[in-house]
Amino acid sequence: xxxxxxxxxxxxxxxxxxxxxxxxxxxxxxxxxxxxxxxxxxxxxxxxxxxxxxxxxxxxxxxxxxxxxxxxxxxxxxxxxxxxxxxxxxxxxxxxxxxxxxxxxxxxxxxxxxxxxxxxxxxxxxxxxxxxxxxxxxxxxxxxxxxxxxxxxxxxxxxxxxxxxxxxxxxxxxxxxxxxxxxxxxxxxxxxxxxxxxxxxxxxxxxxxxxxxxxxxxxxxxxxxxxxxxxxxxxxxxxxxxx
Length: 243
Ligand code: ZN
Known about the structure:
With 243 residues, the protein is α/β, with parallel strands linked by helices. The protein has eight helices and twelve strands. The protein is globular. 49% of the residues are buried. The site of zinc ion (ZN) has 7 residues, from loops.
């Protein structure tokens, strides 16, 4: 079965709609979301509605948990805190209630799913092979999917070998084989790996393959919506650089 994996949509309707359109042209039977549906972007209600309509499962990210009040806002950077407060004000009650039902980790088809990491599903940024080693030791599944860092990447550990990692570009494809994998699709709504296009991943559970995808979207439209909402200008600015 082909599954489209998305993460870190962050209220960016322009990016998520483009990804959904791209996904609809594939063989994907399901869509899984690894969390952070809201925060930073100007369209949290639309993004919640689209995830609820299209995703078979959705994790809670740290920004989702901030908006529902489950995490204190002083753990966040200034821009993230302002965006979370603004999101709390504009978010419809039924979307907030739905976000409050989500959890930061899950398992599906023998695949470990975590917003951030197996060791700390809410906060840990897994960006080094050393941390990836600890994550492999903390979860039993051969394939672990994570979001949170907004960087498309993978770590792999073959039997008896140390873990190695690399950033991933559009079109990169891997056969999972017998090794263990820790995989991040990158971010739909606020990529931070220097590629401004929305990032996502296609997983084929039957063939045992993964492929990193990118989707062009109306970055200027998303930035204009952030400015119109009077959110911090830096949140609009960074979208065009993918940072
Ligand atoms: Zn995020």
